[in-house]
Amino acid sequence: MEHILKPTAAAQTDLPRLWEARRLPEDPAALADERYHDIVAETYDDWEGTPWMAHAEAWIVPWMVGHVRGGIAVDLGTGTGRIAQALAETGSVEVIAVDRSRRMLQAALTKTKGLPVLALRADAAELPILDATVDAVTCSGVLHHMEDPRRAINEVARVLRPGGLFVIREPNADYPAEWFAPLERMAKTAHRRRLASPTTEKCEVSAPSEHPVSPALLRDWLSTMFVPESIGSAKLLASLSLPVGTRGEHLYYRLANLADRACVLRLLRGRGSLVLVVARRTERMLTHRATGRRA
Ligand SMILES: C[S@@+](CC[C@H](N)C(=O)[O-])C[C@H]1O[C@@H](n2cnc3c(N)ncnc32)[C@H](O)[C@@H]1O
Q: Per CATH, the architecture of 2-281 is what?
């Protein structure tokens, strides 16, 4: 896979399979986000492994990976590499796992030992990858960390071959979090009473600013370079955040997932807590000009 990297990326000798861009954009927001993810890298998988994540998202990674049919895939903002791992385990995909956070990449490399995964420390807005060399890009929970996600979308369009696939999972700006807030407060209070001790927060470091996007805004941003195959949302009932250890939580998430997949998504179109997009790179630029701005 090294053959599709630009000379602006250099191999690191301390960690085999790790390459680094010689230059990363140094805007304060990107640096703050990188520091935050370096700090949380060690505990990130514990958090991901809570019932909330494991059950409420059980089907989403397989859903994303299921669209990728082989070749070289870039997993943008790979974090600890859960999607890179699932892609490589299909046996038909080689993966370049990109992230700004070196600690996240170290975790991803540990997780993907023995698999065809190369880690690349780079910014999503300046990928040291040659034009039109990649068959698919997956991007889960990354764009909302960026001040201007359109720079990453332009880069994805540049590195993808015509017809290449772009699969996105992002927090949804249209998700009505307030619907669940009273229920979440009640569940937390009941849980505390039952345990007779306060629940401890797993992560005490506050995340830098995040900017969820709506399905409509993503559609607009993608419109000049991609043809969307599907733009929708997922995870409504399964977004109810129960305290870890709440009685019946596993059962709740299982049922909520089934309901979300079966019917709620159709009834409450676009209001799930995640935006899911599958889009294809066009042969050439389309004439429509994206105008959308964040709300
Ligand atoms: C919420 S985590 C998601 C990790 C993984 N994709 C997943 O779904 O489990 C976001 C990741 O994106 C990375 N990231 C954020 N902004 C980035 C940027 N501009 N360039 C590259 N990586 C970035 C962070 O370092 C972090 O590892």
A: 3-Layer(aba) Sandwich (3.40)
Q: Whose CA is nearest to atom 12 of ligand 1?
A: 77
**Residue 253 binned pLDDT confidence (cut-offs 50, 70, 90):** confident
Look at the block and give the residue holding tokens 């680094």: 20
Task: Give the count of alpha carbons within 13 A of 71, CB side only.
Answer: 17
**Mean per-residue pLDDT for 188-212?**
66
Provide the phi-psi class of 263: left if phi over 0, else alpha when psi is between -120 and 50, else beta: alpha
The residue among 108, 115, 169, 167 whose CA lies nearest residue 136 is: 167
CA nearest neighbour of 208 among 100, 109, 106, 122: 100
Task: Decide whether any atom of ligand 1 lies within 6 Å of the 111 Cβ.
Answer: no
Tell how strand 71-76 and strand 134-140 pair up: parallel
The band of 76, judged by pLDDT with boundaries at 50, 70 and 90, is very high
Distance 99 CA to ligand 1 centre (A): 6
One DSSP character per residue, 62-77 reads HHHHHT--SEEEEEET
Centre of ligand 1 to C-alpha 153, Å, is 14
Nearest-atom index, ligand 1, CA of 38: 25
